[in-house]
Specification:
The complex is a heterodimer. By secondary structure, chain A is an alpha+beta fold. In chain A, 37% of the residues lie in helices and 22% in strands. Classes of the chains: A alpha+beta, B mainly alpha.
């Protein structure tokens, strides 16, 4: 199937419209938002649709906001202002490296295509994921893995493209939630296989929890901590 | 207040006012205009883009002006979705804080600043739905009345400010385009946008298969897109 630029523009425009209407399902929405963050053209489509549709709700009778609400907003702004210098302390810590997280936002067309294919070929739909993360390559931000958990207490690591692992090496899967001192290994990835991780031994997954794959020796990292280069990295989103 | 806005309001008063503003001294005029700044004006006069830019520069007064201007409408939108007054007020509070924090991310290439504000606010409202046990109501007449463009245009003629500063053709264009949709498809779009219902809820409400509702919405958007161009 050939996709021309015009086609993908139309698809994007339709997705933007569905996003504004709020009718994308949870997975579609997360994927769309990931692309949106880094794509001004897509944001423009969204704002344009919103501007059109808002003419409908402009006909709703306005609801006057109570006086305390504006005072509450002012108070919150005061609090923000006093706490800002502390929270915005610059840091070069790897886990907070901006380019990497900025890159994560740039989840590209490949993922859309993947989900389009998945959504159209997997009817009836699988049970809805309750937690999802998209892992991308740190250099070119290509989406390469998706993590999903459903109702069962198992997490799946699904490759989005062919995986190449150099001879004598292995990909090791790690996670680290906020407040953890160090990452925890979730196992080694074998070629062409979906890695399944039992979640019973882990604390509950949290919003923004970090996941990454590093290239280690075939038996896994000798130190129990990531030592090799990062092959893929991303953060999780809870889907309620 | 910018010059263009003063000019628009001035023209309005010249044409329709009960007082003859031509007789007033300039300082008095400015006092009148600055007090007008505190009240909500038609969205087509208010400069949302400038407002966001000022917020990005840390101008708090700009945020509070935006609040005066838009809070009643935002609250109406959020309340319609959540059907819970305290929760809706929380969401509007959070929206203004987020507008303040994110205003720097907005720039003119992103298109409509008002659209940007509503996207941000509606997303917060849709996320807050998980805390609201709202009822799914079937009110087709209410929704259809809301976008009855004949009624809207009549209203515009009654309202001098609106006819003066709005281009009624442009305003009503989405409504016109919605009219080209079959009634049931139009309802799908309205239930989704105005009520914030999910596709599942709409399917149940209209007693149609989910797949049908999905494809109606997709096709309706394509038709609207074509009509709006």
């Amino acid at each position: 199937m050939k996709t021309t630029d015009a086609d993908s523009l139309n698809t994007d425009n339709n997705l933007a419209g569905q996003y504004v209407l709020g009718t994308l399902d949870k997975t579609e929405r997360v994927v769309f938002e990931a692309r949106l963050a880094d794509n001004p053209q897509l944001q423009k489509m969204v704002n344009q649709w919103q501007d059109h549709f808002v003419s409908i709700t402009d006909q709703l009778p306005p609801v006057s906001a109570p006086q305390p609400l504006s005072a509450r907003i002012e108070r919150s702004l005061d609090t923000l202002e006093t706490s800002r210098p502390i929270t915005q302390k610059p840091t070069t810590n790897f886990w907070q490296s901006l380019p990497i997280w900025r890159g994560l936002a740039g989840v590209g067309m490949a993922l859309t295509v993947f989900f389009a294919v998945q959504l159209s070929t997997m009817q009836p739909e699988l049970s809805e994921p309750t937690y999802i993360a998209v892992l991308v390559a740190p250099q070119d931000k290509t989406p390469s893995w998706v993590i999903q958990t459903g109702q069962s207490n198992q997490m799946q690591l699904v490759p989005l493209a062919a995986v190449e692992i150099p001879k004598g090496k292995a990909l090791q899967f790690w996670t680290k939630a906020e407040g953890w001192e160090k990452p925890v290994s979730l196992g080694l990835v074998k070629k062409g296989e979906t890695l399944k991780v039992n979640l019973d031994s882990l604390p509950p997954l949290t919003e923004n929890q970090l996941f990454e794959l590093t290239l280690e020796q075939a038996s896994g990292s000798p130190t129990g901590l990531p030592t090799g280069p990062i092959a893929s990295i991303g953060r999780g989103v809870i889907m309620l | 207040m910018d010059a263009a806005k003063i000019k628009k309001i001035l023209n309005f008063f010249k044409r329709y006012s009960c007082t003859d503003f031509n007789d007033l001294e300039e300082p008095v005029l400015y006092t009148v205009f600055f007090s007008l700044d505190r009240i909500s004006v038609s969205p087509s006069i208010f400069n949302y883009e400038t407002s966001l830019k000022k917020c990005a520069q840390g101008d708090r007064r700009a945020l509070m002006q935006l609040y005066e201007q838009e809070a009643p409408r935002l609250l109406a939108v959020v309340l319609r979705i959540l059907q819970n007054r305290p929760l809706a007020e929380d969401v509007v509070h959070d929206a203004f804080i987020k507008i303040w924090q994110n205003a720097q991310q907005y720039h003119s290439e992103l298109g409509s600043a008002r659209g940007w504000i509503y996207t941000l606010t509606r997303n917060l409202a849709l996320n807050a739905l998980k805390y609201s046990h709202r009822q799914v109501l079937f009110e087709p007449e209410f929704l259809l009345d809301l976008c009855d463009h004949h009624a809207i245009e009549n209203e515009h003629q009654k309202d001098n400010v609106e006819t003066l500063v709005n281009d009624p053709l442009a305003q009503a264009s989405l409504n016109r385009c919605l009219d080209h949709l079959e009634p049931q498809r139009k309802l799908c779009v309205l239930h989704a946008y105005v009520d914030g219902y999910t596709q599942d809820e709409i399917a149940t409400l209209l007693d149609k298969p989910l797949g049908t509702v999905k494809s109606w919405i997709k096709r309706s958007l394509n038709a609207l897109k074509e009509c709006l161009q």
